[in-house]
Amino acid sequence: MEEDEIYSLDLVGMRVIVKDTGKLVGTVGQVFNFGAGDLLRVMIGATEDTIPQSTQNQDSTPSGEHVWVPFTEDIVPDIDMKSREMWITPPKGLLELNSRSDKRSKKERSAMEWKEKKKLQRRIIASKKILSEMDQGHVLEGLQSDDKVQKASLAEQIGSIDFQLFQHAMQSVTKPMGSLSKNGLVNSSSSRKNSMRIPYETLMNHQGKVKHVFSSELNEGLEILQKTKAAIILCTNDSDSLDSEFLILLNSFNKSMKVEENRGSLPFVIVCPAAHVEPVKNCLVENDYFGLETQKVWVLQEMELPVISMSSKLNSRKILLRSPWEILQKPAGPGAIFSLLSSNKILDTLNKMGVEYVQICSLSSKLTIGHPLLFGAVSSLGVDAGVNLWKTSKEEEDDFDLILSMNHVNKMCRDATKLRFSAQPEQHVHIEHVDGQWVTIQPEAANCHRLHAEVTSVLNSCSPDKVCVMEIVDQ
What we know:
Blueprint: H1 8-11, E1 15-18, E2 24-32, E3 39-44, E4 66-70, E5 78-80, E6 85-88, H2 94-98, H3 106-133, H4 148-160, H5 163-174, H6 182-187, H7 189-193, E7 195-199, H8 200-204, H9 215-226, E8 230-235, H10 242-259, E9 268-272, H11 277-286, E10 297-301, E11 304-306, E12 308-309, E13 321-323, E14 326-327, E15 329-331, H12 337-343, H13 346-352, E16 357-362, H14 372-381, E17 385-390, E18 401-405, H15 406-414, E19 422-426, E20 430-434, E21 437-441, E22 448-452, E23 467-473
Parallel strand pairs: 1-6, 7-23, 8-9, 8-16, 9-10, 17-23
Antiparallel strand pairs: 1-2, 2-3, 3-4, 5-6, 11-15, 12-22, 13-14, 16-18, 17-18, 19-22, 20-21
Helix pairs in contact: 3-4, 9-14, 12-15
């Protein structure tokens, strides 16, 4: 199809059919134009006669059951304007992913929406009380606005703050404690008792039949993966390139998972910045989920916490505001993954699945992600945490690759105070409420702190003899 050959309104009302099976999906009800990423809203089981005229207006929102289909040449290769049909080749899981799973009646859905609204209201009331107790009443000033949209936006921001984690982070940076760094871990006497030096060549050639010194750990790790007793948590950040590193890592993981015929599909959690959530989901769909089972994949927005003013006293640290209705928030770091697992109920799901080990890593871990030797090493040593370190390349300080026992993950999720935060100086324009007026503050130097937790801080809550270091070396 040439560009501009087919217009959006020409597509509305067309029958959508799966090319491989000839099965009717439904009829195009709407077309949402996003440049090269146009989306078709396909009404399940509908025919052109049953598509209301109003759905041809993109501002309308049909309430019928529907699926989203990206309008790309790969997914929609054939269109017959005469028969008013388009034949699609959807990636595995696309139709199931986007279809509405809620089969309840309109009355039942309304009741649930009302219940959720009341739940949010209770959370906001509780949050307002906490803010007052923390001497952060200035955050609530915007709720007195006459603008309902602005008030609702601020209320939603307040209700979404994890105050248990926020209060702990505030106290943690006021009374900082030493945290074990990766380099310090390697040189500590306790870690050397549970240390392994794994040659790079052994790591890369683990699929061969030749026995080596790590054959026992490798076999134990293969059994863990085959029985799907492992899960992966991948953390990305704003600086990561989704077009390159992300694709390389997931393709590498997909290939490694195909090596063993009986290896099951592992639960896979991707944590990314808000702006990356939709692109990541689209990337998964376009690449057939890289061989993963769709129901075992979660894409989560990274947790953010309010930015606070600089002060040595806890009660003097104030939450900064961009406007009376917008709290200045920044990512809390990969260490906040444990709160995300709890709040999204993924922790319960992993426990029910029988997961025993969880790998938490950054995008730099493309050669070790899901590696059986590393899972087997942690299991055979009976430790709660294994740290993978590379000595064959330049490793950035922000890179991390940990394997934790599910017991330790549960412990971290139950008690947020085990996580250690640091206060990172930053410079931000913000507003302050002075004498009943909002005043813009333009700082000339660092004026605030971002609350940040490294995932490696979990090592501080482990017994020294329950931590192992796995160094990947040239020889």
